[in-house]
């Protein structure tokens, strides 16, 4: 593969020991050092003092759906609470949509995310909720990412059937070949802790790795379950007891915070400061979905996390890149150390500080994914 040398970088964030103001990439990072003594490469790009950083790792999204819920959002902004009940509206629209429509919607959102600097995105099923629609959701997701998550346990579509039996039986059978991860919405009105444990362990027995929607709307034992099962990530963490913070801090489970969700549901933000100060690993992700957080923008999440969750700009950048990589148990992305996958962003700004300092401004100027300009 051809090599590209980028010189004259104003601020090069690598999150590794490899430092400098120049980088050479092929499909991997080949070299990092100073512009003055950079080796030759096939092509050259002068960054003109701009900041270069790893591409964002968005470790939590729900992109396989049809329709939108703008009216539900408007009602919320007029005072209605968010309950998750609107998931049913999206399930109905998703079941009625063709494969082509679902694929088109999802790839449009992936392209939108990539224009904002996302180079890896996890995508969940969860708006099919029957064997056929969950399996096709994952088939479509797997054309867009390798980070596919089976979320048949999003809600129970009908009280009359043994839905946990279905999710751990025929649906798992049909979905496991297309998924890397298994997730459960562990929440009052969705799946309780025992059901969630049964669902995640059934998935693990099929080779899927566990992650979980935990403590989003209420305090529960979901975070404890995440740690018990060594989930890669406990997502949301909006309502945490001290014992949850302690459990996360002494585990390998990442606390993935989703500020777009609190922003769009007017819920209190998760206490990122408390988690970081306790020693927990924190990731930031969009939770992009039509109900609780219809944003694909990692820069937006960084700006909110810095402004309203008391994260420093440096912490937020790390959480949106390295944190996401850890939430996906990946060592090859989220950083620009030599050998990393060449996923990088050139900003139209001298420093990544501008991501939070200039909220809402499209600062991503160029994106390389596996070394290829997007
Ligand atoms: O992560 N909490 C569960 N699932 C999504 C929201 C789904 C929806 O409202 O459509 C979430 O917030
Ligand atoms: Fe979610």
Automatic annotation (TrEMBL):
GO MF terms held by the record: imidazolonepropionase activity; iron ion binding; zinc ion binding
HAMAP family linked to this entry: HutI
Biological pathway: Amino-acid degradation; L-histidine degradation into L-glutamate; N-formimidoyl-L-glutamate from L-histidine: step 3/3
Record-listed Zn(2+) binding positions: 60, 62, 213, 287
Cofactor binding mode and count: Binds 1 zinc or iron ion per subunit.
Main location: cytoplasm
Sites where the protein binds N-formimidoyl-L-glutamate: 127, 289, 291
Annotated positions binding 4-imidazolone-5-propanoate: 69, 127, 154, 216, 292
Organism per entry: Rhizocola hellebori
Residues bound to Fe(3+): 60, 62, 213, 287
EC numbers: 3.5.2.7
Keyword Acetylation: no
Record function comment: Catalyzes the hydrolytic cleavage of the carbon-nitrogen bond in imidazolone-5-propanoate to yield N-formimidoyl-L-glutamate. It is the third step in the universal histidine degradation pathway.
Protein name: Imidazolonepropionase
Keywords on record: Cytoplasm, Histidine metabolism, Hydrolase, Iron, Metal-binding, Zinc
Compartmental location: Cytoplasm
Assigned protein family: Belongs to the metallo-dependent hydrolases superfamily. HutI family.
Any one GO BP annotation for this protein: L-histidine catabolic process to glutamate and formamide
PANTHER family: IMIDAZOLONEPROPIONASE, IMIDAZOLONEPROPIONASE-RELATED
Catalytic reactions of this protein: 4-imidazolone-5-propanoate + H2O = N-formimidoyl-L-glutamate
Pfam families reported in the protein's UniProt record: Amidohydro_1
Domain Amidohydrolase-related: 52-347
